[in-house]
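Supplementary notes for students who missed Thursday's class. We covered one full example, reproduced here. Read the sequence, then the structure, then the short commentary at the end.
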Amino acid sequence: MESIAKGKLFVVATPIGNLEDITFRAIRTLKEATIILAEDTRKTAKLLHHYDINTKMLSYRDQNHNRVISPILDILNSCQDIALVSDSGTPTISDPGFKLVRELVNHSIEIISIPGPSAAIAALSISGLPTDKFVFLGFLPKGQNKQRLLLQKYSNLDATIILYESPYRVKKLLHSILDTLGDRTITVANDLTKKFERTWHGKASDVLTILEEITPKGEFTVLISKD
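Structure (token representation):
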């Protein structure tokens, strides 16, 4: 029996800060898609305007998955392609999209990656920490006790640990690292690719001293050495 043609879902990585950090293929894909699924359509609109992309958008977040999955399937089953983006970086990596990709795989929809920026990989590449083995934990739980339990779980792992954190909790995270893992060598990258990006290398206690003297702003990527 001949299979029924269906559209494809393109998972498109977009800039994490600097709008120039996007591939030619990503721009073409966004222009050619029938619709773009965006975490925040207002933020994505700035990127689309910059590159003169006029494709219609539909808001997609984990919270509205059940409400929008039906029209998404209708589009794909009518042999039209969809592009998925998040606010920045690669979708599904600590961003919405996992539920969608999992469900579409179960519906035999072809999923195609359009690779590009990821804050975790960008920070790892400039950290000076071992890159042969690493584990990405994303955002840790907000509660400090839960944070420390999770850090303790990975304390003996022979790999670099990569975390994301907000400016409001990054100092508490470094305290958790000190109390749980000891004064390990770390790298803290702040607002990578943006105008005022900053990166600090050193012992956790030394980096914490620096952060205690400033008001953290923007997004943080924290990398922890295995020793």
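Commentary. The longest helix spans residues 65-77. The domain at 8-114 is CATH 3.40.1010.10 (Cobalt-precorrin-4 Transmethylase; domain 1). If anything here is unclear, bring it to office hours.
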